[in-house]
Amino acid sequence: MDKFRMIFQFFQSNQESFMNGICGIMALASTQIYSAFDFNCPCLPRYNLAYGLGILLVPPFILFLLGFVLNNNVSMLAEEWRRPQGQRGKDPAVLRYMFCSMAQRAMIAPVVWVSVTLLDGKCITCAFCTLVPVETLGNASHPSLSQGDMKRVLARIPCKEIYDGQELIANEVAVRYLRCISQALGWCFVLLMTMLAFLVRSLRPCFSQAAFLKSRYWSHYIDIERKLFDETCTEHARSFAKVCIQQFFEGMSADLVAAHCHLPRKAAGDAGEATEKLLGITDWDTMNMVLKSWHRCKPPLHLHPPALPKSGLCCGGCQGRHYQICKTSFLLPRAQCWAVLWV
Amino acid sequence: IMDRFRMIFQYFQSNSESVMNGICGLLTLASIKMYTSIDFSCPCLPQYNMAYGLGIMFVPPIALFLCGLILNRQSLVMLEEWSRPQGHRKKDLAVIRYLCSSIMQRAMVAPAAWIIVTLLDGKCLICAFSSSMDPENFVDFASASPVQVQQLLAKVPCKDEELMRNNTSRKAVSRYLRCWSQALGWSILLILIVAAFLTRWLRPCFNQAALLQARHWSNYIDIEQKIFEETCCEHSRLFAHKCILHFFESMRQEIELHSFSLSREGEGAEEDQGLLRGITDQDQVNKLLKMWYYEKPPLDVSRATQRHPLGQETSSLPWAHSPRTGSKFPQHTDV
Hints:
The complex is a heterodimer. By secondary structure, chain A is mainly α. Chain A is about 70% helix and about 0% strand. Chain A is built from 14 helices and no strands. In chain A, helix 2 packs parallel to helix 5, helix 4 runs antiparallel to helix 5 and helix 6 packs across helix 9. The longest helix of chain A has about 50 residues. Chain B is mostly helical. In chain B, helix 4 runs antiparallel to helix 8 and helix 4 packs across helix 9. Chains A and B meet through helix 1, helix 9 and helix 10 of A and helix 1, helix 2, helix 3, helix 9 and helix 10 of B. Chain A: Belongs to the CALHM family. Chain A: Pfam families: Ca_hom_mod. Chain A: GO terms for molecular function: monoatomic cation channel activity.
């Protein structure tokens, strides 16, 4: 288990390996989707081409976009691209590197889909069955049909059950021919893509390796900086909330003592830490008052320094930063506040 | 954290060869699975058979070979070592040769597996060479006209053809070609295994010391690169940390300069006040977030270490340089 944990941590810490993992999963997902998909050729002259080419080209486009969507770095790239320059220069090489690495990973699933579709052969059979060379493959002795009729007959090639042109051209011959062409195209496509990938990968170290190292470092830096900034902000927010709430309770406690609404229940000699934490709020009514005050009149997002406690009750427009001003304006509406809270 | 990294590196040091062997094995299995799952359909037409048969036999191995090269991490290492300028470190050609040969050996396994499986299965060879058989040896074909003979021979690989279904001559041609195909397949397999065996067995007899050196230094180059990448990651993490702290600090100072608040008192007294870093207001937080987007701080943390309030002993990072440094004080722009 230890080894697995180490491996998992290694992959998590290394952003690129993690993205490679997602890439591989998407490629497998695309093969699964293809095999689960029920291919139904319409077997009609004009619809065949549209259906076949649609199945061949639309899902790869969707998978490509999905590859970008699932990549966390897209928002990072957009942010880095759109931010104002300010004091930090923008390096277009870094942007290019980020975009290229994302595009490369996003291309894998579509390429897998197109390869699998071509190697399987059903799409091309459906799309191009009307273009089968009847003169060379078919029976020469068969009386010729009009163009429209010929097309209608040929369009039914993928659907064996309704095919009625057996005398014109045998179904198996046409299907074998089309599938052979499709597989040839498929393997050529696969070879082309692998050769392209190989060239991209192997030529890069021979040219501009130093610039590549620079771009990679700074793109990692931007990623890490963003994550650390989010962490720092979260930390800050937590401290902010803690101090705000603490000041709220202290303010309520001070107010209760000042207003003499109830006698503080501090028992003599009871100097425990727990008693201090209760801040004088020690009975049912008082606690309810505090909770109502929290709901009806949340404190402003403005922390006072610890030496100067502020009132826990805020009455309408008292958002001032200066304690003196607040204190004077409290005198009048205070009665109203109490009336509201006791309800 | 360093402990964890060290454990991970030791793991990979002992097993980087295993990782690559694993990838090689996976690729081989993938190639066999691909062969069994792809529907092989010979076109059974005179001009197309040969092209299709030989294409299926030779094009996928090339693609698998290139895949094997791409997926192998060592190929990048080798190319970098080969194309780098000499500088202070001499280039050892023996190391590059060792890397090259080990990469090629691993990359050749999947293509060889494909070719052998294809030959042992026999369909490819039957498809490719059925048209080139001599029709005299087979009863049904000997009596047909030359044009017809070509057509009939081309249809041999397709068992479902109505003409061919129960034709004994078709079966004879098929069996004959399959026998040749399997013989070829088994011979190639035997030759490859004998070659591998001899290479491994006889290698220690020649130049073992040079081999050990080459292997050690190729391993070294690999690990050095990994550690360099990890160190760069660590460094950028520290850099980012300092940069952000510096940013919060400069925001705090600006707020103190411009506002009348009494935040000087009670500073550093509580841990929470320290974490708040002097930013204690909704407006201040909003301003900080706006500044972060509109004016990111310059990539220069050398000033941060000199001005650190608690005087921690962080020395100015030797690599702390940025593409463009802003040396003037941050301009405060009210947006």
